[in-house]
Specification:
By secondary structure, the chain is of the alpha/beta class. The protein has 11 helices and 10 strands.
Length: about 325
Amino acid sequence: MKLAIALMVDPMALASARAELPKGPITLVVPFAVGGATDVVSRLVAQKLGERIQRTVVVENVGGGGGAIGAAKVARAGPDGNTLLMGTIATHVINPLSMAQLPYNAQRDFTSVSLIAMVANVLLVHSSVKARNVQELIALMKAQPGQFSYGSSGVGTPPHLSGELFKSMTGVDMSHVPYKGGGPAMGDLVAGHIPVLFDVLSGAASHIRAGSVRALAVTTRERVVSFPDIPTVAESGVPGYETWTWNAIFGPAGLPRPMVDELSGALQAVTALPDVQAKLKELSATPVGSTPETLTTLVATETAKWRAVIQSIGGLKRD
């Protein structure tokens, strides 16, 4: 009897829900290069979201500008839900705090939909670097000032800030090598073209497990469950050090509230799926899935936190 009732009700409810969803295919803009942490999470979410709402969800990588170019594309899109952004702390917090000519307004030009996951950053070195821990790396850099460089996924990204904060708090001298995404940066670390890399842990996880790079420390306050043997930078002799990032879905400004609610509900359901939870944890991301209001509050809170970090290192020099 319950099954019969469900069969009678569900088609109507589904039709009503679909009426609030975007018409046609959805493009999920990833503002970083293929193969990086944000790209990996985005492709997982896009596949599951498409299955959930029975729409085609296509990932489009639009890298450059520390995420600003891709974010600007979504900001200029129409409020029909056919173009969404996998935003990060870089696109919605760091860029607004550090770029004078940002081609969008992070608060005015977007609609919050759902926070997907929180992610740690990680300090990595090439196997040729003669340092097995953070203190040995600091000693090595101080013994050879100016001889070390570190890569990141781009100027103003969380990994870049992680590196700058590390320099500020330890007094080491190392130059920054920005890339257009974590994928290309990781490729150069594995190949030995750069000795040090600050990366998002979700993008670096498979390389750490494969042993192609050496992880010295994670940047969060506490150790990460998926890599319990990797210490934090703070416990490795740099007390008070802490950085992080996150992935969240935004739409252009003006998305109709019913559409926002449908998309947010679908994303929360997707994030709660056991296989998605397992995959995100495998990538060393902490699954969240949130309401639009929670995401909006997070952006405001993170802006206050990162403003203090940027000020503590004397601001950012955009290359």
